[in-house]
Amino acid sequence: MRVSLKNIIAPTIPFAVLLVGFSFSLWGFPIFTDYRPAAGMEGLGILDKTTIPLFAGKFFPGLVCSISLNLLNAFLLAQINNRFAIIRTRTFLPILIFLLFVGSWTETHHLIGPHLALTFFILALFNYMSMLKNTRATEQAFMGSFFIGLTSVLVNPLILLVPACWLGLIIFQSFSLRTFLATLFGVATPWVFVFAAAYMLTGETEITRLVNTVFSVEFGVYPFSIPQLVYSGLLFVILVIGIVGISSGSNKDAIQTRNKLNFIILLVFSVLAISVFSKNHFLSLLPVIALLYSLIVSHPFSLKNNNFYGIVFIVFTVLNIAYVVANYFFF
What we know:
Blueprint: H1 6-9, H2 13-32, E1 35-37, E2 47-49, H3 52-84, H4 93-104, H5 112-128, H6 138-154, H7 162-171, H8 177-202, H9 207-214, H10 226-248, H11 255-276, H12 282-303, H13 307-329
Antiparallel strand pairs: 1-2
Helix pairs in contact: 2-3, 2-4, 3-4, 3-5, 4-12, 4-13, 5-6, 5-12, 6-8, 7-11, 8-9, 10-12, 10-13, 11-12
């Protein structure tokens, strides 16, 4: 029996609409059941069972806003793949995998800030990937880091991605004193305005207290449950399979494409490390992980048309659907 992803890689328009609709049906699951964030845990997105009207009335507007942002992010994801040829064929898989992720992670549905932060993060990627072999690309370096700065204002731990971005400039052969300084000024600019606003609103003059007012990162390992550990472990295995698949076929990719893929792999491991040790921002980092993950695993899924990757994709899809169902019945 042959398992082929050809119809999903390049679906017809009606089938693509059906796939997107299926992904967003996972968003509707809490509305038609009886989910809401438990009392006192709204910011963390931890769910508990209650009545439909309370959830729909208080959190439905946030869901609409989150869905709208993720439609925009899915569109930008398609544009970044097409513009920079990260996958050397037109494929629908990055969009589908991304939407499956954000649809399955019910805990993040009402967190609007992280989805907006992802929009800024994608814009940063556009600028960084435009810098290949250009040590004078100060405008792109500034704007890329400016968007990273905006991202970190919304999700504070992402400020730690700046060193990874410097490594990315080295990978792209774009690192120079000019681009280095441009990244520093870029990432600092949003924070200058944030600190200025905090000073004007609070009148606080002590720098330590001012930083604590606008910057909040609690380091520590996120308290995973056993089902979450199993789910995360299986997703990590699929990620490793995707990276191995990229490596085994890298000789067919252009050098520039390989550099972009290496940068994305560097970013996904950086964000994973940050997320595990930033327990109060773990859920807020998941949308960024979803985007980077979808680009990585879509590469071999789209280019290696064999039974193995077809089965792995089926396992991935079933795993996420099972996670949504388990969230309701068992977590």
